[in-house]
Amino acid sequence: MLVSNLLSNYLPLPDDPEYAQLNAQLPAYRTSLETRYPPICASCLPAVEEEIKRRDRMARTSALGTLLKQSKGKGKERQRQNSGSLVRKRRAALERELLIWRVRGVLWVTMLIGFLSAYGFVLSGSTTLQLPVLLYKTSPVIVFLSIIWTAWDPRYATFKRSQIQGREVRLRAKREYNSLQTFVWLSRLLTTILVALSAWKPTWDILYAPNSTASLSLQPRALWYYRVSIVLELCILIRSVVILRIDTPPPVRLMEQYSHRPSLPPSDTSSQYPSRHTTPMVDPAQELISSLTLSNNPILMNLTDARSSTTSPVFGQPSLTHVNGHANGQSSLALDPMEDETGFPDTDDPMDGEDEDAERDPDAMDWSPIHPVQRSQRRARALGDRSNSMRREDVNLRPQRFFAPEEPTGLEGLFEKTIKLGDDDLVRREEMSKQTLWRRWFGSTSRS
């Protein structure tokens, strides 16, 4: 998650002047992140590798099983279909289908050319286009019947031949093609209805009056209607030719092309990580702070030197090395900033002298201990037994005695209601004993 967030925030906007430089450094930055924050530790890597291989085998088995189910019985079906009689029957049926397909194609092209020519003649202002009035009156019926060949598919012959040859092909964008052709059919039907209305009744003449003997002229709205219609025809024609295509589905390839291992520097690819103690660690004196940076500049650590100079961490012991130590190899004691070389706080009485006050830091905090002790006494105790110095009276850790007042929360009586802290058994026994004594006394008095 951390690596993903850093990678998502690495590149700036494309219009940023540093975008090209940061984009070129992206592989190195990804390698740096995977080195600093490895997704999988070395001890877990074998188990993860085995799990990934097992899942890959399961995926391959599932894919092969699906292919076998789909191809079950296809061999016998192909042999039966490739027999002589079936081949001849299928070829005869295909020829009949292709004949009908060609007739529909001729009608489709004729209708397209006819409407484009009519729009062109009208927009050019030519008056030579004189058609029979009966054709204008019956044009809506012709266009309505053209729904049979409106969705004519020019790729149908290629598609059927490919299927007969045994190739698996797919026809793309068939639904969009049918929608476009249906829209064109509605536009043509509306145009022929407007023209037929003007032919049946001249008073309804909106676009063009074919029975008029006077000079022909188009109204402005009719001119705009024809312009929009011809542009619509051309745009849909181009779109239909472009989108309709036949594709061959890609074959299934059960090959591992990409590795799931993190990309490490070339110097570390040959190294093996047998256990946790070989996990790359950072040299604290050189790259401790640099490895924790969130900068966009890639930082590649020298893992070989880091592994050779560090040891495995041990629970209960500090993992950072001691930089300051004694010359004899013993670990040095960390001195508190308020302590002197003896290990005790340098808390002299401010009345000791002006020379000691002059040596103090002017920015130091002005404080004095509760029980001031002279320097000589502290030095004597420090030079004496070290164990006795732990019982000094100047600094003591005592339990807390003062508690700040708190507002009532309303839960103070919760345990009193739910849990009875009294001795219920003793109380019950006392009550039973009292009742027994009363019954005995009452029985004795009644007998007497």
From TrEMBL:
<feature type="transmembrane region" description="Helical">
    <location>
        <begin position="224"/>
        <end position="246"/>
    </location>
</feature>
<feature type="compositionally biased region" description="Basic and acidic residues">
    <location>
        <begin position="382"/>
        <end position="394"/>
    </location>
</feature>
<keyword id="KW-0472">Membrane</keyword>
<keyword id="KW-0539">Nucleus</keyword>
<dbReference type="GO" id="GO:0005637">
    <property type="term" value="C:nuclear inner membrane"/>
</dbReference>
<feature type="compositionally biased region" description="Polar residues">
    <location>
        <begin position="308"/>
        <end position="333"/>
    </location>
</feature>
<dbReference type="GO" id="GO:0071765">
    <property type="term" value="P:nuclear inner membrane organization"/>
</dbReference>
<feature type="region of interest" description="Disordered">
    <location>
        <begin position="308"/>
        <end position="394"/>
    </location>
</feature>
<dbReference type="InterPro" id="IPR042321">
    <property type="entry name" value="Ima1"/>
</dbReference>
<feature type="transmembrane region" description="Helical">
    <location>
        <begin position="134"/>
        <end position="152"/>
    </location>
</feature>
<feature type="compositionally biased region" description="Polar residues">
    <location>
        <begin position="266"/>
        <end position="278"/>
    </location>
</feature>
<dbReference type="InterPro" id="IPR018617">
    <property type="entry name" value="Ima1_N"/>
</dbReference>
<dbReference type="GO" id="GO:0044732">
    <property type="term" value="C:mitotic spindle pole body"/>
</dbReference>
<keyword id="KW-0812">Transmembrane</keyword>
<feature type="region of interest" description="Disordered">
    <location>
        <begin position="257"/>
        <end position="280"/>
    </location>
</feature>
<dbReference type="GO" id="GO:0034506">
    <property type="term" value="C:chromosome, centromeric core domain"/>
</dbReference>
<keyword id="KW-1133">Transmembrane helix</keyword>
<feature type="transmembrane region" description="Helical">
    <location>
        <begin position="99"/>
        <end position="122"/>
    </location>
</feature>
<feature type="compositionally biased region" description="Acidic residues">
    <location>
        <begin position="337"/>
        <end position="360"/>
    </location>
</feature>
<protein>
    <recommendedName>
        <fullName>Ima1 N-terminal domain-containing protein</fullName>
    </recommendedName>
</protein>
<dbReference type="GO" id="GO:0034992">
    <property type="term" value="C:microtubule organizing center attachment site"/>
</dbReference>
<dbReference type="Pfam" id="PF09779">
    <property type="entry name" value="Ima1_N"/>
</dbReference>
<feature type="transmembrane region" description="Helical">
    <location>
        <begin position="180"/>
        <end position="200"/>
    </location>
</feature>
<feature type="domain" description="Ima1 N-terminal">
    <location>
        <begin position="2"/>
        <end position="48"/>
    </location>
</feature>
